[in-house]
């Protein structure tokens, strides 16, 4: 008798919910913890079913769940219960199949996992932020070289399968070293941010990606863009930078900031190393021919000019 009393006391005092359900999902027994968490009395719960309390269950899902209980006997799931006042509470349910006096039941141990979910959400957000920072250029906020390399590899695989052309633009701010020397690094940083912003906007509008390649060089990756489309995007970038009207008093090209752009359009078979080498050659050709221009075509030059 004492053991029975101890068992009854344990059931009523444990903080986890103990819930017995019949094969139809009706509440047969609930302990005090279940009533406290859900806000119902035991009598009220006896008139309810799981589908009345769990928003993820309907009659069909419950029937599938019951078949799973009979087959697997014991397992753990995570779901949600809605309290009497309408609050959704995440829970962990340890399911246990019980055959008692010829009747089948699900005896569940149910735990409120709200705090765990809060911690998991914070960790997920932290991991997402770490991932974002790892693929974002600190200064400009656009994609960095790591992100660009990953997207380029994905695009190459995709375009190799579809046969679509893939275009890339390499853009360099003209005479940026003397810009920094003349106006200071703070002005240089702000210049990079403004240029990056317009390149990012233009590339994104075309379904592409803009990235800071390093220093004052940027890359724009344009999926399914042929020569004409890529050259037009490059000209848009050139015009958009000019419209920023960033004064460049030390420039040997213009009174305001300008850019040079090299454009390369590729078709399968693709070679990533040759793609980057090829577009770099187009950029240096643009610089060699006087800067503040867009060049698209085979490289006929040799050594790169000084910055």
- Silhouette: elongated
What's the CATH architecture name of the largest domain? Answer: 2-Layer Sandwich
CATH topology of the largest domain: Alpha-Beta Plaits
What average pLDDT do the residues reach? Answer: 91
| Spatial strand arrangement across the major sheet | 2-1-5-4-3
* Fraction of residues in H or I helices: 40-55%
Question: What percentage of the residues does DSSP assign to strands (E)?
Answer: 15-25%
| Gyration radius from CA atoms, angstroms | 32 Å
Q: Major beta sheet, specifics?
A: 5 strands, antiparallel
CATH class of the largest domain: Alpha Beta
Q: Structural class, please?
A: alpha+beta
> Helix count, per DSSP?
11
The assembly state of the depicted protein chains is single chain
Distance between the termini: 93 Å
| CATH H-level superfamily of the largest domain | Reverse transcriptase/Diguanylate cyclase domain
GO cellular component, one term: plasma membrane
InterPro entries: Diguanylate_Cyclase, GGDEF_dom, Nucleotide_cyclase, PAS, PAS-like_dom_sf, Rev_trsase/Diguanyl_cyclase
GO molecular function, one term: diguanylate cyclase activity
Pfam family, one: PAS_9
């Amino acid at each position: 008798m004492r053991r029975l009393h101890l068992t009854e006391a344990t059931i009523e005092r444990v903080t986890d919910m103990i819930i017995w359900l019949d094969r139809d999902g009706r509440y047969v027994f609930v302990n005090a913890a279940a009533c406290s968490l859900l806000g119902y009395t035991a009598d009220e719960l006896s008139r309810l079913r799981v589908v009345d309390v769990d928003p993820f269950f309907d009659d069909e899902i419950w029937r599938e769940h019951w078949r799973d209980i009979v087959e697997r006997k014991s397992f753990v799931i995570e779901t949600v219960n809605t309290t009497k006042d309408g609050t959704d509470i995440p829970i962990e349910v340890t399911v246990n199949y019980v055959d008692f006096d010829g009747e089948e039941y699900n005896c569940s141990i149910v735990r409120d996992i709200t705090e765990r979910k809060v911690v998991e959400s914070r960790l997920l957000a932290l991991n997402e932020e770490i991932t974002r920072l790892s693929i974002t250029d600190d200064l400009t906020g656009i994609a960095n070289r790591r992100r660009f390399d990953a997207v380029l590899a994905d695009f190459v695989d995709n375009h190799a399968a579809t046969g679509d052309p893939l275009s890339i633009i390499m853009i360099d701010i003209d005479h940026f070293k003397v810009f920094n020397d003349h106006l200071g690094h703070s002005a240089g940083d702000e210049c990079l941010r403004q240029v990056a912003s317009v390149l990012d906007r233009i590339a994104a509008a075309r379904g592409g990606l803009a990235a800071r390649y390093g220093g004052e060089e940027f890359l724009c990756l344009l999926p399914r863009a042929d020569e004409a489309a890529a050259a037009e995007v490059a000209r848009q970038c050139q015009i958009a930078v000019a419209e920023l009207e960033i004064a460049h008093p030390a420039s040997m090209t213009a009174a305001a900031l300008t850019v040079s752009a090299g454009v390369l359009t590729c078709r399968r078979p693709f070679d990533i190393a040759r793609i980057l080498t090829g577009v770099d050659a187009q950029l240096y050709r643009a610089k060699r021919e006087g800067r503040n221009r867009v060049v698209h075509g085979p490289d006929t030059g040799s050594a790169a000019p000084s910055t």
